[in-house]
Design goal:
single chain; two-stranded parallel ribbon; 3 helices
Length: about 80
């Protein structure tokens, strides 16, 4: 877990006022979503997971690790 100074550096020096969802809560939900996607989309069908750059790449990486079937990943860019 990053320390306070590492977090402040990533936040541009701004202080975090409160944490709504803990790292553990988010990881638990991402794993749950991965299981749901694995169960919903049967193997044998092509699965394409799309993310919106730039904000989703870390989340999407965590999510696709939890999907237990072959898939392709791509990103969209919005301007």
């Amino acid at each position: 877990m990053p320390n306070t100074s590492e977090i402040a550096a990533r936040m541009g020096g701004r202080e975090i006022r409160r944490v709504i969802f803990s790292e553990t809560d988010i990881a638990r939900r991402v794993a749950e979503m991965g299981r749901e996607i694995t169960a919903y989309y049967p193997e044998g069908e092509d699965l394409l997971v799309l993310g919106l750059l730039k904000g989703s790449f870390i989340f999407l990486a965590d999510l696709v690790r939890e999907i237990k079937r072959p898939l392709n990943v791509d990103f969209l860019v919005a301007s």
